[in-house]
Specification:
Rossmann fold, alpha/beta, about 25% helix, globular, 4 helices
Amino acid sequence: MRIISGVYKGKKLISPLNKETRPLKDLTKESLFNIINHSNKFNINIQNSNVLDLFSGIGSFGIECLSRGAKFVMFVESYQDALDVLKKNLFNLKLVKNYEMIKKNIYEELNFNSFNKKFNIIFLDPPYKDKNINLLLKKIYNAKILEDNGILIIHRHKNDDNFLIEQFNIIEKKKYGISKIIFGNYF
């Protein structure tokens, strides 16, 4: 695993030692960022964006955002082994402190209403077996933490369509092997 672009381009990321964490594959990540940068369906500039990386794992998505000039990234992860690798990845890059790590269960402990900022990009990459995404999308919607022109990016198994709420607007969908990436926002 590596950083694809930006100031840390080519730097390797430490991978997890177990199967509990499923990092974003380089090819999928590269395609995802190409869509963010070149889509005419939404207008997002990673530079100077605030990014919320939910189920961040080892930080592959959020670190890529930092490398590409994001203003701030908030990593949220509850699995200690993944957090340990995330900390090492951030430390190895000697990143400035324009990020925050939160160790909380996203469904049970994280209060989105307590956030003191809104986000331009919210990335959700829960385990494939997780079937509660609709609850999370409702919490995000109710807390109003997505900027008006912001996007939600959801990484799911290609056959999982059982999580969309009525306020969620799909902008674009792409399949990559057994996974898919959904870009959307709220009505």
